[in-house]
Write a structure and sequence with these properties.
Largest sheet: 5 strands, mixed
Radius of gyration: 24 Å
Helix content: 40-55%
Number of helices: 15
Distance between the termini: 83 Å
């Protein structure tokens, strides 16, 4: 075997086997010239940000923190792919949602190699970075969040806003009916399958809790009941504000949804919507930044929770480090709301909501456009 073929075989040892079960000895010529250009210190930071949704300093921070988990050793056949290139492959895929063949072409790596790298880096993000960047706030942080929400909305004791979005998927081979999204299908007049992503955000739009991967046929209320958040609700000492798709509970504050609302109730709903807007805006930035969340992907269903979790962690890092969103990435987020089967779960919560509504109006904090 000549040296050229040996080098090619070594570089693409992770590529798919042929139908005979043996590795191919020829591959399509690939170039990593683009990555070499982008990784150069002279490459403009603004162009770097367009490619990876973050500046070079944030990218370098992520590489540094992930290095122990994603570093590979050199072998006799090839040099290991460097950590920055591994992280870049993953971020490019999440940011663009491009097919693996496009990732392969851009980075000069085999398709299966790119697929493996993406899953490895996402797994490392979840294992290494999630405990640091995505967690329920400690008492001091919780108090600061409540102060900020009260200052902006007038509602006391708000520790977060909850929202549920849908991530489109290709029709799965098993349990296909469970993932059929009836509401999106009817609205778009196109058969849609999805999985859900429920998240709680703080006053800055940073995720403090997520629940990923339940089938798209489930309502927001059903997803909530499956989440770890719901099962530790007795430990939630603040209000979490949700939309009318969620039930009113002793820890979950939602708008009045019945007919013929009073002035006070309309005014209260407007303030609740202001808090909800923080969550909607956070999910808008999440999906704008990581375009893969808006495209049907060829990833396996079992791999998606890891990828979605990684996107949420990366969102938090970008938000904490004030990485903005380019105007051309903005889009209108819309998720169909469903009516809860049991819209009120607590008489105490009904009383508490009424008291908050009356105090808002009494203290002139519930200015309203209702006429």
């Amino acid at each position: 075997m000549n040296d050229h073929l040996l080098q090619k075989r070594a570089r693409d040892a992770e590529d798919e086997p042929s139908s005979s079960g043996q590795r191919r000895l020829w591959v399509k010529s690939r170039s990593n010239a683009w990555w070499e250009e982008v990784s150069s210190p002279d490459y403009p930071d603004e162009e770097f940000r367009k490619s990876f949704r973050m500046g070079r300093a944030t990218f370098d921070l992520i590489c540094q923190e992930l290095e122990p988990a994603v570093t590979k050793k050199d072998t006799m056949l090839r040099l290991a792919i460097p950590v920055p290139q591994r992280v870049a492959v993953c971020l490019w895929r999440l940011a663009t949602g491009e097919a693996l063949r496009e990732v392969s072409r851009r980075f000069g790596l085999g398709i299966s190699t790119c697929h493996k790298i993406i899953l490895e880096v996402c797994t490392a993000i979840r294992a290494v970075l999630m405990p640091k960047y995505l967690h329920w706030p400690d008492p001091a942080r919780a108090a600061a969040i409540q102060r900020d929400f009260e200052a902006s909305s007038g509602i006391p004791g708000v520790g977060g806003a909850i929202y549920t979005t849908h991530i489109p998927i290709i029709a799965p081979k098993v349990s296909v009916a469970a993932y059929f999204n009836k509401r999106h299908t009817e609205r778009k007049q196109k058969t849609t399958y999805s999985i859900t992503l429920q998240g709680v955000v703080d006053n800055k739009g940073v995720f403090t809790d997520i629940c990923v991967g339940w089938p798209g046929s489930m309502t927001d209320e059903q997803v909530l009941h499956k989440s770890a958040l719901f099962h530790r609700a007795n430990l939630v000492s603040t209000w979490i504000v949700g939309s009318s798709a969620f039930p009113l509970a002793e820890w979950l504050l939602v708008p009045y949804a019945h007919q013929n609302l009073t002035w006070t109730q309309h005014a209260f709903n407007e303030k609740v919507d202001e808090v909800q807007e923080v969550a909607r805006e956070a999910f808008t930035r999440l999906k704008a930044r990581w375009t893969c969340l808006r495209k049907r992907t060829e990833m396996k269903l079992l791999d998606l929770p890891v990828v979605l979790g990684a996107c949420c962690v990366l969102h938090n890092i970008c938000e904490i480090r004030n990485e903005g969103i380019a105007a051309d990435l903005r889009f209108d987020l819309f998720d169909d709301l469903s009516v809860p089967e049991n819209p009120v779960t607590s008489a105490e919560a009904v009383l508490a909501r009424d008291q908050i509504a009356h105090k808002l109006l009494h203290h002139n904090l519930a200015g309203t456009n209702f006429q």
